[in-house]
Design a protein that fits this description.
Blueprint (H helix, E strand, L loop, with lengths): L1 H13 L5 H7 L6 H11 L12 H15 L1
Length: 71
């Protein structure tokens, strides 16, 4: 359910759970734009450095979507 996934990304934004980065990175490829943007928002900043190399392109794409939506 997209609403549940979007809520989960918001919750993980504040979480200090060891698997938060992995869970958020997985959502960078979600079919729902709001979920992808939420994951990018949650990963931006310090957590971005924790992203595996194979997830950085998906992060950049989702972050671009977020920036475009904020304009």
């Amino acid at each position: 359910d997209p609403l549940v996934r979007a809520a989960a990304t918001r919750a993980l934004q504040e979480a200090d759970a060891p698997n938060a980065v992995a869970a958020l990175a997985y959502r960078l490829r979600d079919p729902v734009r709001e979920v992808r943007m939420g994951a990018a928002r949650a990963l931006a900043g310090a957590r971005e450095r924790e992203l595996p190399a194979d997830k950085r392109a998906a992060f950049a794409s989702a972050l671009d979507e977020l920036v475009a939506a904020l304009r």
